[in-house]
Model the fold of this input.
Amino acid sequence: MAREVFNSKMGAIAAAAGSAVGLGNIWRFPYVLGENGGGAFLFVYILFTFLIAVPILLSELAIGRRAGKPVLGAFKALAPGTKWHLIGYSGVFCAFLILSFYAIVSGWTLLYAYRAVVGELAAISPDEMTTLYNHTSSDPVVSIIWMFAFIGLTAFVVMRGVQDGIEKYSKILMPMLLLLIVLLCIRALTLPGALDGLAFLLKPDFSKLTFTGIFEALGQAFFSLSIGMGTMTTYGSYISRKQNLVSGGFSIAGLDFMIAFLAAVIIFPCAFSFGISPGQGPGLVFVTLPNIFNQIFMGRAVSIVFFVLLSVAALTSTISLLEVVVSFLVSERGFRRKPASLLVAGLIGLLGCLCAFSSTIFSLFDNISANILLPGGALFIVLFIPHVLGKEAFRSELEACGTRQRVFGVFYFVIKYIVPVAVGGVLIYQIVNWLIG
Ligand code: TRP
Done:
């Protein structure tokens, strides 16, 4: 993000929340939870979000604000002459991978908004809804067309550097999305059989939780909060020193968790009520939600609004991802913003085509980025705090707003010992598992 494009009035904290809240909450979280057996996964996810991911989020924000520079520059400024800035390169690579499959799903969201407008989703049975999704996801041409539409939209915004305008809209649209989600929760919970879905979500059955499930909960927590690749470091550099980073970080995580949780409160009752398998994978949101629209007053209008709002939520996230790559080319490689945006958008479109043609590649990119690259990046970011930035500098960042952090000692202990051991342990286990499996 070139520094001049992002002095949004609503504040960088809210912009960071816009990056965090997206398809990760409404599409990815429910499907990964469904694949991993429900309640026990939720329990571990909450633990990881608040104990592991929030400290990393605060580390990223603090590093960015301390340096006053986007990710690559931040590490170069704080640790000159070292290799720490390689975190930035891994972030750029990771942004490419995430965008390639994320743009496909974003394209489907747009397509479903269109289908809602023309009435294609109205009055079709749950089985037909599943068939419709299967047709969509196995038709690369359709996926590619809508993906390019979405990438075009993202590139258009990033190219013009008008994030300000987008943030202004999302300030109104995000609360609307939240409100709509709450209303849908109420309807979902009154469906016949809804309680089975709720039990699936809330009753932890730890016998269903595998090590892979634990590992995916960690990856999902990172993915959902946009941490581990420098997006939040970049955002941190825009936050004023008057802002309280700690309360800001917790608000972002709280909001992000609430939206993911409420999405699940809609989706699982709906799945159980309509006889859809909760573990069916990436199509889950697309085959469950439209059914509920057919059961409510003014359902068609509601479905249009829902998919449009979801597309906007996805857009604020894709903007933050594309910006990572574009700002790298602009500030490190001397590109101009417009050609850089078009070039990167084009390359991502090509990678996206691979994901459209092969669900194996789609899942591979999804897995590698969330479960390997983000935890890997996060591990180095969190090691940076005690080993380079130092305890006092970190404390002074967190307390810059004038509020003393009374539990700083505990918090620092968590960052120095608990987080690296947990993330490192999970990561090593998974890599070994891959190599031998
Ligand atoms: N967090 C976003 C979501 O939940 C996706 C996202 C945006 C992201 N920027 C990111 C994920 C950076 C990882 C890293 O939809």
Summary: DSSP finds 18 helices and no strands in the chain. The CA atoms of residues 96 and 275 lie 36 Å apart.
